[in-house]
Amino acid sequence: MTPHRIDTHHHPYPPAYLQKTADILKRTTHAFYDRLTRWQPSQAVEAMDRDGIAVSVLSIATPSVWLGDAAASRALARECNDYCATLQRDHKGRFGHFATLPLPDVEGSLREIEYIFDTLKADGIALTTNYDDKYPGEAAWAPIFEELNRRKAVVYFHPTANSFAFNRVKDIPPPTIEFPFDTTRAITSLLFSGTLSRCPDIKWIFSHGGGALAMIANRLAHFARNRPEMGARVPNGVKHELSRLYVDIVSINSPGALAALLDVMPMSHLLFGTDFPFWKPEEAIQALAELNLSAADIAAIERGNALALMPGLPR
């Protein structure tokens, strides 16, 4: 099989990251933890070749690099970003890279943005949906998004869980229920803080089909109409801003879920993703095949849409 797919949702596990986040990874990933520790570039490339993936875009996932201390978090962000950039060089043409930031440290994040784009030439930024239970529409974080807008950056969000969500439902880990809702909280925060409308040149990508967005998009639009002071923060309209978002199709595994999503955004804004190493690429490929799409739409999701969004990716 000639590799052709572009995977926009692939998580590397650099040794420094595993070492410094081991406690929380063990607590939040449970049965997946051993699988994460076995992640190696050679293993990733082998899986990509087996399942026809030409390029995987690397992104550090939850719990991200914030260690509770600005200096330590800046150092870990730099280690992770350099590690991923090295993988790109060593496996030329096989990896892209969404670099990480040491949020909620704004000053450190602005410095890292400069390094990420001017030195590493990364393909975009990877963020988690909240940091210390604060969401991306926080006024203090506006300089981050203003700079990313100036650079016309791609900004990719991966879910994490708010602290209140741990052990909320007995025996159910946060990724099962809370990740989709935290993604939705992050989108809502960006929407009604005015960040989406103030930053029209950012290309926003959200994991897992945008969480529960498709189910509540009309509620958000209704809220804006009935609360003029909130609607004023979305001058182009809720539907307009939501239609600009991109999502990967991880977890979009039924025609009904896809139909709800396409009521919010066009087919051209759907991207292929696998969530490797949590899931095998073949699972994402099979789920996409079961959505009853045309060959042209599958080709666009698997490759064309990502290249249109990020023309700098390897071809």
Question: Care to give the gist of this entry?
Answer:
This protein has 315 residues and is α/β, with parallel strands linked by helices. It has helices at 15-29, 33-37, 41-50, 70-90, 106-120, 142-150, 174-192, 195-198, 213-226, 228-231, 238-243, 255-262, 281-289, 295-309, and strands spanning 5-10, 53-59, 95-100, 124-128, 154-158, 203-206, 246-248, 270-271. The protein has a single domain, classed as Alpha-Beta Barrel (TIM Barrel).
Architecture, according to CATH? Alpha-Beta Barrel
What is the typical, i.e. mean, pLDDT?
94
Low-confidence stretches: none
- Amount of beta strand: 5-15%
Count every beta strand, where a strand is a DSSP E run of 2 or more residues. 8
Lateral strand order in the biggest sheet: 1-2-3-4-5-6-7-8
Number of helices: 14
- What is CATH's topology name? TIM Barrel
- Please report the first level of CATH classification, the CATH class: Alpha Beta
Judged by helices, strands and strand pairing, the structural class is alpha/beta
Distance between the termini: 16 Å
Radius of gyration: 18 Å
H and E string: EHHHEHEHEHEHHEHHHEHEHH
As for the number of domains, it is: 1
Largest sheet: 8 strands, parallel
Write the CATH homologous superfamily: Metal-dependent hydrolases
